[in-house]
Design goal:
five-stranded antiparallel beta sheet, 10% helix, single chain, mainly beta, 80 residues
Length: 80
């Protein structure tokens, strides 16, 4: 229950801009969103800091990156 309460209390900031994303030899028109915590009193290792590339045409998140216990990157390889 405490974990859920903490998640609900986190204030977030979302910033976006349009970009071209190249994945596996193909180019996509995407919106690049940055999702970050606004509350700087949250410990740095608990703050949100995600980069999200969203393709409106296909309604797909094509790529996500973040740093928490290492650097992580998820990319869509194939979709129908």
């Amino acid at each position: 229950m405490d974990q859920e309460k903490k998640l609900l209390e986190i204030e977030n900031k979302i910033v976006s801009n349009k970009e071209k994303l190249d994945l596996y030899g193909k180019s996509y028109d995407v919106e690049h969103f940055k999702l970050t915590s606004k509350d700087m009193s949250i410990p740095e290792d608990k703050r949100l800091n995600f980069d999200i590339w969203f393709n409106k045409k296909n309604a797909l998140i094509l790529k996500v990156t973040y740093s928490r216990m290492g650097n992580w990157e998820y990319r869509v390889k194939k979709f129908e």
